[in-house]
Amino acid sequence: EMASKEGYPHFMLKEIHEQPFAIGSTLAGINEKEFDNVVNLLLNSRKILIVGAGTSYHAGLVGDYLLTTVLGLDTHAVISSEYKRYVNAVNDNDTVIAISQSGETIDTLVAVRALKERGAKVIAISNVIDSAIPRESNYVLYTRAGPEIGVAATKTFTTQLVIMTILTLRAGIIMGKLDANEYRSIMDSLNKLPGLLQNIITRTEGRVKALSEYMSRRQNAYYLGRGIGVPLSMEGALKLKEIAYIHAEAYPAGESKHGPIALVEEGYPVVFSILDDDNVDPLLGNVMEMKARDAYTIGFVPEKYIGKFKELLNAVLELPNVDYRIAPIIYIVPMQLLAYYTAVARGYDPDKPRNLAKTVTVE
Ligand code: G6P
Fold this sequence. Notes:
This protein is an alpha/beta fold. The chain has helices at residues 11-17, 19-28, 32-43, 54-70, 84-87, 106-117, 132-135, 155-175, 180-215, 229-244, 280-292, 306-309, 327-345; strands at 48-52, 75-79, 95-100, 121-126, 139-142, 220-225, 247-252, 269-273, 296-302, 315-319.
């Protein structure tokens, strides 16, 4: 292997720590003209489909949330291998955003080909220049995360989210859905992300490591959130599943009482993500429900709501107060660390999870 771990025990840990730099490079590499061409296409589309697999699908779900909920564009995130569900409903007024770190995932490539055949235009978001999916797309936006060696995606996810956020902001300003002040303030937060994330990693790594001791002794976990916290929870759960081999399931918190709560008993870990003001009170109710069943409640909570949640949480990760539209980029980092340290505590190699491949080239 040519790449070096640069003193880290695993590539995954190195890549988690590289995120401030990867985000900085992605922001620095943004070509406004390229983005404006893509934004133009999105604004003139009847419908937008976002296709992706694994972690890239989760980035697509966050993108779907931003385009649908923030901008009101008709957007659907689709698991690449399930694209057939939409084929009949797509025509040349539609646009596909294909998200793939490697640019080579066969499921995503097959979806791109089929939807292009229907007349849709395709925008690729990829970390590998000139890979198959970018080559077959009409437009390409590259993340500049640098090579990712760890099988479980980390820095490519956060940089994909950066691209989706900037697309949303630029479209929002043209559509008049965001005013200039809001635009500037979120852009400003994005530009400060590298420093902020560096700080969060330094501040939370010890606590996360301590929490992983508990997690490493469990067989199951729930990850619950609302709104943009749902895809965040899905990605957090996927990380734990992929490398620590713990059955982790994400659910919209409001849906947890329609089934999942039946499994909760003393000590069952339930990870709550608190992001947007609108969902704080309903989430508080969900935390109470789990606490009442003696769950081991873990909260990723912004500073301003710590007081509200503290008593109900067995473990709390304090995060900065940030705009909910960029919060997933921040919150996922301690979740990646939690999966990493849990895998290590269980004696597994996080860089080489069993049965998984970095890039899947069979359908
Ligand atoms: C594999 C990897 C995942 C990745 C997915 C999609 O399953 O193990 O980490 O998210 O493929 O990969 P892509 O290169 O298309 O983003």
